[in-house]
Design a protein that fits this description.
- With about 90 residues, the protein is an all-alpha fold.
- The longest helix has about 45 residues.
- The termini are far apart.
């Protein structure tokens, strides 16, 4: 009879051990999900930062294209002036 009671206690201890580990794991997972959601959930601040930076990048790209086209026009005009000066031989002085 003592053997059956002893085995029942061992089973109960094993069940409590596994139940304890399960509770600890679930608490850790829940804490991780909670912390992750609070820090990065919906990420509204990150979305605001991303849209601001994207707008700034687009503005800089547009300015770069404008400057490239202005440089191309100036280079074209300079080449035209140099050709005209070379063709005229400086006779306009």
């Amino acid at each position: 009879m003592t053997q059956a009671g002893h085995e029942a206690e061992e089973v109960k201890d094993v069940v409590w051990t596994y139940a304890g580990w399960t509770v600890i794991i679930l608490i850790c997972i829940g804490a991780g999900i909670f912390i992750g959601y609070t820090l990065w959930g919906n990420a509204s601040s990150l979305q605001r930062d991303l849209s601001a930076v994207t707008e700034q990048v687009n503005t800089l790209k547009n300015e770069r294209e404008t400057l490239k086209s202005q440089l191309a026009l100036c280079t074209r005009d300079k080449d035209a002036c140099q050709k005209q000066a070379a063709a005229g031989g400086g006779a306009g002085r």
